[in-house]
């Protein structure tokens, strides 16, 4: 496993733990299909949340939030629709597209910024 993939999985584990402490429950992680990938799929009360996890060491180039481009958002939305077509038990649930941004501070501590409804399906 390459270093980048290991690092990504580490931060997804941290994100899952953080969101679990906020009351979310894991449905699936690292869902992949022909349309793209969804880092985390979790339930928050009556909502099914498709969550993009981003880590950045610095705010250069806009930080973590700038890396969730409109093209990336479209891929996540397409992948979520494909997921729902195969998991019909979630079809009646409210859907939400969240982002969890993890930023490393100068002292090495991690700062979590959970953005609920970070983007919408049109």
What does this molecule look like?
The chain is α+β, with helices and mostly antiparallel strands. It has a single domain, classed as Trna Endonuclease, Chain: A, domain 1 (3-Layer(aba) Sandwich). The chain is built from two helices and five strands, in the order αβββαββ. It is globular. The relative contact order is 0.19.
Task: State the gist of this model.
The chain is α+β, with helices and mostly antiparallel strands and 122 residues long. It has 2 helices and 5 strands.
Shape label: globular
Radius of gyration: 14 Å
Secondary structure: number of strands: 5
The order of strands across the largest sheet is 1-2-3-4-5
Provide the descriptors you would attach to this structure in a database record.
globular, 2 helices, 5-stranded mixed β-sheet, alpha+beta, 40% strand, single chain, 122 residues, Trna Endonuclease, Chain: A, domain 1
Per-chain topology:
Layout: H1 3-21, E1 25-33, E2 36-44, E3 47-56, H2 70-86, E4 94-104, E5 110-119
Parallel strand pairs: 3-4
Antiparallel strand pairs: 1-2, 2-3, 4-5
């Amino acid at each position: 496993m390459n270093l980048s993939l290991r690092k990504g999985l580490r931060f997804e584990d941290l994100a899952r733990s953080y969101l679990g402490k906020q009351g979310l429950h894991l449905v699936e992680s690292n869902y992949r299909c022909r349309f793209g990938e969804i880092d985390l799929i979790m339930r928050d009360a009556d909502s099914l949340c498709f969550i993009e996890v981003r880590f950045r060491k610095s705010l250069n180039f806009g930080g973590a939030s700038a890396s969730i481009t409109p093209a990336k958002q479209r891929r996540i939305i397409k992948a979520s629709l494909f997921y729902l077509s195969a998991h019909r038990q979630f079809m009646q649930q409210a859907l939400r597209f969240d982002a969890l941004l993890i930023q490393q501070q100068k002292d090495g501590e991690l700062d979590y910024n959970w953005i609920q409804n970070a983007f919408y399906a049109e």
